[in-house]
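Chain X:
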Amino acid sequence: MTCIPEHVRGILNTLESGGFKAWLVGGCLRDMLLGRTIHDWDVATSARGAEIVSLFPKTVETGARFGTVTVITSGGLVEVTTLRSDGVYSDRRRPDEVHFVDDLLEDLKRRDFTVNAMAMTGAGGLSDPFDGQGDLERRLIRCVGRPEDRFSEDALRMFRALRFSAQLGFDIESLTMAAIGRCAPLCAALSAERVRDETEKILLSPRPELVGAAVSLGLFEGRLDKADGQSADLLDVQSPALRRIAGLPEDNRLRWSSFCAVLQSNRRTASARDFLRAMHLDAKTVRSCAAGAETALAAPLPKDRPALKRLLSHIGPDAARCAAAADVVLRGGDTLRRIEEVISGGECFSIAQLAVTGDDLIAMGIAPSRQLGAILKKLLDHVIDHPEDNKREILMKRALKP
């Protein structure tokens, strides 16, 4: 089990010394029990916001409405939140109101999954009213209470169930999975940013194929075209295509491009570019991923080195890497490795990498014109086939040839 770091233990001790109760809760406790690396620490306490602020020299009230105070320490930031129960979730995302309580059970029973609904004191006393520890041992994602209630409160929890399954390698309990299928249309009301972030975490996980389950269950309601019954079954989590995503580097662009290629192959979107824009990805990612997916879908990528360099020259390295990743996912093979070798090896595939420049040619008496650009393109084409000729003296001579 991961040890509690000193700055976190100090917060627990300070709260308890001030006459309040305090526990580690949520994902940090889950990951601690699993022996996983912990990036964010969360503490629940009976202290109210103003009392938390009074106990620590540096704080930020990051979520006053929800009773959350971020405590700033030399060891890092820790979120400290007052025990609470939640009111109605009319927007299917956050409670309209919260009620601060002193009962730990009231706080834990509002949480999403049993593995996130445990609490532990600094001394190691574990509160586990929903058998979260048992579900950790069973490697199971299960809702706290009735799954339909949890998903109706916050539709993003359906994506989170698949994300935890993908990241932890856990199964989703049958009643929870069935409820996801029934409640999936609620996801249409989620913001694009929320869906994007959870999707990306699935894509970057050890089991990215579960993004196919999200599609098949209907979690992308209103964001993808309806299945037409005639498309290839590439979105099945058992399909080799989706499973090959796990073999790609943990690069968000490579994985988004590959996912989009599978979606288009499966006729769930007509345009990778439109889908990525609708998911509010940044403009550079949209350009690279869409160009990569569309290139891979148009035809299998070439295998020989000169053709790969021409591809790099034509669409640029970012899009070419995305295209190679999508090609690998759709068809298998090692195109991405070959592209990476060309890039990392410093081989010339662009005019900027030539041993001569436009200024060199102008100095030789070639006037700035379309002819100048044509000569540079001709030199690049030669160097792509004959990389050993990328030398200034050789290219200057070739530039003068008709």
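Chain Y:
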Amino acid sequence: MQEKKIIYFVAGEPSGDFIGSEIISELLKIYPSPSIYGVGGHYMEKFSFKSLFPMSDLSVMGILPVLLRIRSLYKRINQVVEDILSKNPDIVILIDSPDFNQRVAKKLRKKSFKSKIVCYVAPTVWAWRQKRVKSMAKDFDHLLSILPFEDEFFSKNGLNTTYVGHPAIPLIKQSNEKIFRLKYKINDNPILIFLPGSRDSEIKRHVKPFKEAFSKIKETIPNLTLAIPINDKKKHLISPYFKDAIIITDEEEKLLLFKEADAACASSGTVTLELGLSLTPMVVIYKLDFITWAIVSRLARVKFVSLVNLVLNKSSVTELLQNKCSPRNITKSILELLTNHKTSSNQKKDLLEFKNVMEDGSMTPSKRAAKTIQEILKE
């Protein structure tokens, strides 16, 4: 009879919560009735998982916002560490939220915690703060990476790494049916997607320059349809600005939209990967608060921020960052995609190359991750 396993997860963001739920689903096929503890959200709670505290307590991004909540975050770090020590799990899986989770790992090491500690979703230390990889090799036993070029980078710096694939890959289903257009009776009118980000601060910084740009774009393309996928709880931040837009809150409908749209203006992040896998031409925008941008821009060690450009290692997708994220630049770049067939066609060729690189292998990312965790537990 197989020994009952105790598995501890920490996910601090909605994306990490989804990843956690997918791994739990696969681990339940390997281990009968494991005891699962930790921090997570509504996706993980579908598996009778009870979070130690609300996951939203950890959803903080940017240097200034983190500093303003530093005391409460340290309190949560200590709470997680004490809970792990009391539960004494066979393995700890820390998903994304790198600043929080590495501090958890570091404290566990100092307290002589013996079980394996796995990091799932690497922090972007290859982009900036590269010296941090050395401490990661001490704090973690294994890394499950979601980008193909990370395996070599982390492995050569002393951290055992397995590329499992990006969790968004199996979500992008192949279909030639124009389901979204039929539902909203769009017919052959061009569709532009606006993806302002998932956090309040991102949405507020991106919505105004895009609104001004969209007014100009509509002057050139009057029959243009605007569609905005957004979390239902964030809809109030968007609705006042775009009265005639199609607001999408359903995840499956969002992915159908990606396949049928003509172009997208997207905040840098996971959605750019989803757009790339859907072969949707895009312009990537991003603005940070002044202090965070001043620090990050000085420390950056990469030429690009969008996942498509990073994976292909070339400037395929236009990136409009910080001061370049202006109404004028957004207007020009989006119109180039919508009116110049050669521009959009060239980017689609690059996106197909990107898709082929990302989808290498037949096993789903969550299944590959679960198999790797199983192997780590056997060590």
